[in-house]
Design a protein that fits this description.
- By secondary structure, the chain is α/β, with parallel strands linked by helices.
- Helices cover 30% and strands 13% of the residues.
- It has 2 domains: 75-319, Aspartate Aminotransferase, domain 2; 321-422, Alpha-Beta Complex (Aspartate Aminotransferase, domain 1), CATH 3.90.1150.10.
- A 7-stranded mixed beta sheet has the order 2-8-7-6-5-3-4. A 3-stranded antiparallel beta sheet has the order 9-10-12. A two-stranded parallel sheet has the order 1-11.
- Helix 8 (322-341) runs parallel beside helix 10.
Length: 424
């Protein structure tokens, strides 16, 4: 309802022009109206953000977000960040405003590292680095730090789009070679480890532990046969989704924006004996020694993203650690794959069953592209968003990372069954 029109002592009042203006007034170009004008002030309600109590216990915010990344985050994490956003723990500042060298952020980044070490049982032999530039920047950083010069060989298992990109970038800074490729099979399988043609002179063996686009995931990891025994893994899309024996790896790197935080921070876990021998041409920000020597604070880091990662690590620990998280992920994925397999060929997942990803589930509809578009459109109307497959492969893709509630997967499979019944 509109408020009543009022004038107050603080209103802008335009008075009637004087009958006998002064010379200075007469010279003024401002022509005022002959009647007093009044300003009407109408109160407008300011919307307030949703409070935690306005959301259901199941964490239903109206949609289930199946995006591949940036991806859904735990509701409890978002709510805690919301509560601390304006005044971070009594500091009078947001964590986005404070100095990265102040005591508050120093405590936040140290706790984030400590909790990550606890989650993954990271040994003292490895550095934990909070970096920028995404996992894609690590495609160059790994060979620059591990290979003394561009003539040093390195082996790559190319199991999908991301490991292929890593290989192509590494060729600029090393004598990278493909030890196995799944391209002929359209990246729907992983190699038997004996089929990986490793060069014993290679500096490292590189894998992508989970291919986000194609939905293949290692259930175990190959043993490097190079003299240095260095295994490198891009774990971007299954990082902290299950326990991992970090001691088996020389380098693990991961973009945070799928399982552990927002976009903007990349985590690298690097064996300490591999730090400090980067190629002379290595940019300072790509040299692991730069960040190890400065506790990830050489320059201003992505403070808010690291803070969110810290909250996610707390949440994962509170769930009982990664062994419990893996059980939940296996249950969610099992429900979805069972629905696909029980559809009589209506839905098709092309990935070999033994290496199907628990994180990214790609599938197609046997009836073709038009039905896939209809499926995605109808799912969106039902509150299930970001189900469109990657532009390079098409189809449908459901990314069901740690923070995807079981209820989200249950709603999706119920919709899939209903869609099939309505569109035989």
């Amino acid at each position: 309802m509109a408020a009543a029109t009022t004038t107050t002592p603080n209103s802008l009042l335009l008075h009637r022009r004087a009958a006998n203006p002064s010379p200075s007034a007469a010279a003024s170009p401002l022509l005022l109206p002959t009647r007093a004008a009044r300003i009407s002030c109408t109160a407008v309600a300011t919307p307030t953000p949703s409070s935690p109590s306005s959301l259901s216990a199941a964490g239903d915010r109206g949609v289930y977000n199946f995006a591949a990344g940036p991806a859904t985050l735990p509701l409890s994490v978002l709510q805690k960040a919301q509560a601390e956003l304006v005044d971070y723990r009594g500091s009078g500042m947001s964590i986005m405003e404070m100095s990265h060298r102040g005591k508050e952020f120093d405590a936040a980044i140290k706790k984030a590292e400590s909790d990550l070490r606890a989650l993954l049982a990271v040994p003292d032999t490895h550095e934990v680095l909070f970096l920028q530039g995404g996992a894609t920047t690590q495609f160059a950083a790994v060979p620059l730090n591990l290979c003394a010069d561009p003539s040093v060989p390195a082996d790559f298992v190319v199991s999908g789009s991301w490991s292929d990109k890593a290989f192509k970038e590494a060729k600029k800074f090393s004598a990278a070679a493909v030890a196995w490729s799944g391209k002929e099979g359209k990246y729907t399988a992983l190699p038997r480890f004996d089929d990986i043609k490793q060069n014993p002179e290679a500096r490292f063996l590189h894998i992508c532990s989970n291919e986000t686009i194609h939905g293949v995931e290692y259930k175990d990891y190959p043993e490097p046969k190079n003299k240095s025994g260095i295994l490198v893994a891009d774990m971007s899309s299954n990082f902290c989704s299950k326990p991992v024996d970090v001691s088996r790896f020389g380098v693990i790197y991961a973009g945070a924006q799928k399982n552990v935080g927002p976009s903007g921070v990349t985590i690298a876990i690097v064996r300490k004996d591999l730090v400090g021998d980067a190629q002379p041409i290595t940019p300072v920000m790509l040299d692991y020694k730069t960040h190890a020597d400065n506790a990830s604070l050489y320059n201003t880091p992505p403070c808010f993203a690291i803070y969110i990662c810290g909250l996610v690590f707390e949440d994962l620990l509170a769930q009982g650690g990664l062994a419990e998280v893996e059980k939940k992920n296996a249950h969610k994925a099992g429900i979805l794959y069972d629905t696909i397999d029980a559809s009589g060929g209506y839905y098709i997942c092309p990935v070999e069953k033994s290496v199907r990803s628990l994180m990214n589930v790609p599938f197609t509809l046997a009836k073709g592209g038009d039905f896939e578009k209809q499926f995605i459109a109808e799912a969106t109307k039902e509150g299930m968003v970001q189900l469109k497959g990657h532009r390079s492969v098409g189809g449908v893709r459901a990314s069901i990372y740690n923070a995807m509630p079981l209820a989200g997967v249950e709603k999706l499979v119920a919709f899939m069954k209903d869609f099939q019944a309505r569109n035989p």
